[in-house]
Amino acid sequence: MSPFSRPTIPRNSLTLWRWMIFEPELLENYEKTLTKQQLIISLLKSYSWVVLLFFILYIPFSLALWAWDLPNVYPTYFSESFLDLWGKAESIERLQLLALRPFINLSPAQINSAWLFSILKNSVVGGLLMTLFSIGEHAGHILQRFISALFKEGVLWFLLTFIFSLFGNYVGGLAFGLAGGLAGGLAFGLAGGLAVGLAGGLAGGLAVGLAGGLAVGLAVGLAVGLAVGLAVGLAVGLAVGLAGGLAGGLAGGLAVGLAFGLAVGLAFGLAVGLAGGLAGGLAGGLAFIISFYIFFPRIPFFLYYLLFARQQVTLTDNPYIHDAVIFFPLPAMDIQLLTVAQKNPILGTEFIDFLLTSRPLQRRLVAQLTHTTTTGYWLKKDFPETTFNIPKIPTEQANYQPSDNWLQSLEQLEKQLITYKQETSISLKLLHLKRFKQLFDEFSAQTARESRDWNHYYNEALSLLNQRIAQQLANDELEAQKAEPIARNCYREGTPLLLDSENDKTIFMQRNDIKETLAYTINTSATLPLFLLQGQRRVGKTSLLNFLPKMLGSGFTLIKIDCQDGNFNAGVVAIFQDLYQQAVTQLKLSDFPEWHPSKNWVEAFNKLKSALVAASEIRGTKIILALDEYESLHKKLKKQPEQADELLSAMRAFSQAQDKVIFLFSGAALLSELYQPNWAQFFVQTKRLSVDYFDKKTSIKLITEPVPLQYTEEATDLLFEQTQGHPALLQRACKELVDLANKTNRREMNRNDVEMVLQELVNERENYPIQCFWTDFCTEHTCHQTVFQLLAGEQPDDIIVIDKLALHGFIIETTTGWQLRCPLFKQWLLKHGKVIYIELQRCDAKIES
């Protein structure tokens, strides 16, 4: 069970009072589950605590009057008849006498000589108070007589007459209070009036609760009781203090404060609750200014929390857990919580979720905790297993929001770290780590420029991370020296080359023919065609797209999306939104509005094209929209053919009507191979840019220039002959040769070394470039039997399949007929082709059955 879970049902009636003060939301939610009958029962049970509070506060002070024999100590303040009875009564009888008779009475002369009483009597407020006193007196006497008639003696008679006599004894209480001393009367009168005024107000809230609900009844009763108790207790206590001293104030001020607080709190809470319901009850209860300014901001609790902050607090035991209405910040306590949250970010995240859902007043603390728990997660794991998660700050806390530059820098940091961890070559890992260190230093500098409200939370974490990165750099450099004594292995396999990688720049072979064709066509054509970057899988199409901005120069801006990326699963409209966001980021168009496309594909595209044309004009650049692996887009278009036709038609019209935005699709399929929708029908003016194998000159350059190995001519010729310049196979073979040189501690590579490495590639069943051809391409185009014929030295008779294989560059025609273009393909297929084909057939049979 989570330490932050909260109950939905109160454990007892006392819990309701605690909820009213500390958890109003829980009380409101609980009330919604109750029937009218259950509501009444809950209220009645709750007010049992009011009775207890009444006796706890009133009886001790009455006993003090009896124990100290105050009528004999101050006889001038009591009537002669009362003193006569008091003198004749035994000890226990005197307690009964206190309940039966007005024990605090002033003579008319004393009343007239009391200046404060005169002010009260002759003022508007005083008139109201005197009227209420009169009502209380008559009600008290009537009730006393009624009770006396029913019960002549006994405990019940004693208790009832004792309670109801409070309403009839206001005059004596006021007079006796006037005779008390200032200090004692003011203190005890205020305390007594407040305490029992609270009790009376809560009792009055019962009527409000029946009309306005559980929360309303409790809240109005509490507010009215506090206000009445403060007002009456202060006035009477002041009067007591002016004349009577400690004893008079203790008895008189308390008694009158109790009686008046009970009477007025009950009447006022009932009237307001019945008349106004929730709004009226709350408005009436908070009308008393003194009570409002003391208890609405909860000053007493706040002072207690300030003292509590000196103690050790935890995420699961602190005032925020128990109190939902903390208005003011608690700096000392918050610092402790921030420290604990950084050390335990998982529990800190749970605490943040609790504050977000249950403590709406603590949004600032949530923002602070989010930053510290973020650094806690960064430091939780040793580098390089660090995860640079992004802090999510509540939107209303603008001062704690990181800038876009900070967020982008953090995102780059995370991507570079992933690249580093995925790399297997130690030399490449070292290069990636150095790049990461550079980005980390830039991120640290950006953090220092952020708001001072929150950037200091990251200082310690960045310092520790910097030390860990430096240590990892030293470890990797030492490992690289041991693992690669001859040459650093810069070759890559399986992943596209990146423009911002110094290593990848050394092994990227520019395809100048494609660059020149693309640039010339864009700059000279009145109407732009759709450009299709087409070639086999793993021949470098994505790498070419990554390096295209550098190849074309500053007059072009490439905006690329990978249609096989996980984010692409959101749908066609999500592609347009992603392209828009990339354009805004790359061209730094911060003033562009946030764009939310409609669900209709054409409407979404029209919004995108308008934004891109405007961006092109503002920045003075031509924008190339590149969709890599565009066949995945085709699969989505097939699901809604009507929208697909409309979208492709709109894209064609836009492409032909302007020269600022260029479409560049990249993939293995030709447009003529995609049906429903028929791409070739819409894009008649398509310019195909074939991405093929490297020629011999480029292949030899890739083999010899990036590393200081010494190849014999026979070795390089054999490499090209067997791979035919296939980029992925050539990269893989070169990588294995560098590893071999480092293992054998020699720079010279000969034919035998090349033969050994090539044989390893043939033996490896998971050789992706060849396996992809056999399992994907040949399955899709039904080529297996034709390829088997070619492997057997036969000439196939299926001219459609032959044409398909030749069109995609897998076979070539020689003087002796058709044959596989790459010898390495042939050797691998002879070894693994039959087995894999049988497995594919069995898999298809299971699916059909």
From TrEMBL:
<keyword id="KW-0472">Membrane</keyword>
<feature type="transmembrane region" description="Helical">
    <location>
        <begin position="250"/>
        <end position="274"/>
    </location>
</feature>
<feature type="transmembrane region" description="Helical">
    <location>
        <begin position="46"/>
        <end position="68"/>
    </location>
</feature>
<keyword id="KW-1133">Transmembrane helix</keyword>
<feature type="transmembrane region" description="Helical">
    <location>
        <begin position="155"/>
        <end position="179"/>
    </location>
</feature>
<feature type="transmembrane region" description="Helical">
    <location>
        <begin position="114"/>
        <end position="135"/>
    </location>
</feature>
<protein>
    <submittedName>
        <fullName>Putative transporter component</fullName>
    </submittedName>
</protein>
<dbReference type="InterPro" id="IPR027417">
    <property type="entry name" value="P-loop_NTPase"/>
</dbReference>
<keyword id="KW-0812">Transmembrane</keyword>
<feature type="transmembrane region" description="Helical">
    <location>
        <begin position="185"/>
        <end position="211"/>
    </location>
</feature>
<feature type="transmembrane region" description="Helical">
    <location>
        <begin position="218"/>
        <end position="244"/>
    </location>
</feature>
